[in-house]
Amino acid sequence: MIESSSDGSSNTSTVPSAVAMPVDGSGPTIVAAHAVAPREHYMDSWKHDLQWIADQCASADVIIAGDFNATVDHMAGLGTDGGTLGRCHDSEDATGNGGVGTWPTSMPALAGAPIDHVMATDAWTAAGSVVLTSMDGSGSDHRPLVVQLDPAH
Fold first, then answer.
1. CATH code at 143?
2. What is the dihedral angle through the alpha carbons of 134, 136, 142, 146, rounded to the nearest 10 degrees?
3. Cα(153)–Cα(147) distance, integer angstroms
4. Residues 6 or more apart whose Cβ sits within 8 Å of residue 69
5. Which of 40, 69, 106, 148 is the most exposed place for a label (fewest CB within 10 A)?
6. What is the pLDDT of residues 57-95, one digit of tens each?
7. What pLDDT, on a 0 to 100 scale, did the predictor assign at position 16?
């Protein structure tokens, strides 16, 4: 785990992410992640952000959710110990919804890109997931993603 810093020296490069750790050591570390979009002038930052997110999945009990601006294909090579990104596994892939697009809402979900994710380490089992299309006109260009995670123990 790499600690997050408010000055951005240890965080995602452009849009800050947040790390919440249990004060008593009991329970998961929860990360709200937002990687920069992979635009021409931000490619190095985007790669840095994906690596930073992967590094958050180094410990045994982690849940990460957010706009990764990346599909699981973009994460190739960033997994460790069988994980998709660091030691974390993609919940949508595990529940059969990995191909449902969360962005943009201007396109049908099956034609969009699945760039928003909920990932967790082996301490959690993805029991279900759904990408909500009923809110496409609400103002965001991303669709909500709802995942049920159950403790693996």
1. 3.60.10.10
2. -10
3. 18
4. 34, 35, 36, 37, 38, 46, 49, 115
5. 40
6. 999 999 999 999 999 999 999 999 999 999 999 999 999
7. 86
10 is a domain residue: no
pLDDT, tens only, 121-150: 999 999 999 999 999 999 999 999 999 999
- The total number of structural domains in the chain stands at 1
Residue 61: give the domain boundaries.
18-151
- Asked if residue 52 lies in contact with residue 12, where contact means CB atoms within 8 angstroms, the answer is yes
CA dihedral angle for residue 143, residue 140, residue 124, residue 22, rounded to 10 degrees = -170
Q: How many CB atoms lie within 10 A of CB 134?
A: 8
Q: Global pTM?
A: 0.91
* Residue type for position 76: A
Beta pairing partners, 117? 66
What is the DSSP pairing of strand 29-34 with strand 62-67? parallel
